[in-house]
């Protein structure tokens, strides 16, 4: 029985993992999504989405010190990654996603954050699959020429 060493070379990874190529790790990449992506606010999180040509859904997470101490921030980041792993199919295909925790995330439960993500992801999917095309999704509301 032969196994393909890269079963997820295109599209989403299989199983529960989040491989390195599906993560946004550099500040410059996160900044690019924050500056040029569409924003969707829902409860204790802000979802920012920017189409990418790589054919992958990639995740970046930002949790500021306003959310809490390092223990709380780490918990929120773990929960965001967990939510993304389980619900990434709700997002538009081939996009970079940055999740930003709002202060209320510190008191939220995993279930509440998951619901917030689901609502924001559905808004993003509707906007990116709108008949006007992807141009409307590339420029956040109220910004652009």
Number of domains: 1
Number of helices: 4
CATH A-level architecture: 2-Layer Sandwich
Overall pLDDT, averaged? 84
Residues in helices, as a percent range: 25-40%
> What spatial order of strands do you see in the largest sheet?
1-2-4-3
Beta content: 15-25%
Structural classification:
alpha+beta
Approximate shape: globular
In angstroms, what separates the terminal alpha carbons?
56 Å
What string, H for helix and E for strand, traces the elements in order? HEEEHEHH
Q: Please identify the top-level CATH class.
A: Alpha Beta
Stretches with pLDDT under 50, minimum 5 residues:
1-10, 133-145
Rg estimate, integer Å = 15 Å
Provide a descriptive summary of the structure in words.
The chain is an alpha+beta fold. It has one domain (21-126): Ribosomal Protein S5, domain 2. It is 35% helix and 17% strand. It has helices at residues 27-36, 70-87, 110-128, 135-138; strands at 38-42, 45-51, 58-62, 95-101. Strands 1-2-4-3 form a four-stranded mixed beta sheet, with helices on both faces. Strand 3 (58-62), helix 2 (70-87) and strand 4 (95-101) form a beta-alpha-beta unit. It is globular. 30% of the residues are buried.
Quick rundown:
This protein is α+β, with helices and mostly antiparallel strands and about 140 residues long. The chain has helices at about 25-35, 70-85, 110-130, 135-140, and strands at about 40, 45-50, 60, 95-100. The chain has a single domain, classed as Ribosomal Protein S5, domain 2, CATH 3.30.230.
């Amino acid at each position: 029985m032969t196994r393909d060493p890269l079963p997820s070379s295109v599209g989403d990874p299989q199983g529960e993992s989040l491989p390195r190529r599906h993560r946004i790790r550099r500040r410059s990449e996160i900044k690019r999504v924050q500056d040029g992506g569409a924003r969707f606010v829902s409860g204790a999180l802000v979802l920012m989405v920017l189409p990418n040509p790589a054919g992958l859904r990639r995740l970046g997470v930002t949790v500021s010190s306003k959310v809490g101490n390092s223990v709380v921030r780490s918990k929120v980041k773990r929960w965001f990654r967990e939510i993304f792993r389980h619900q990434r199919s709700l997002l538009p295909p081939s996009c970079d996603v940055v999740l930003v925790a709002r202060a209320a995330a510190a008191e939220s439960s995993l279930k509440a954050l998951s619901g917030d993500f689901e609502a924001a992801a559905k808004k993003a999917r509707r906007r990116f699959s709108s008949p006007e095309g992807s141009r409307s999704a590339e420029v956040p509301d109220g910004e652009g020429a």
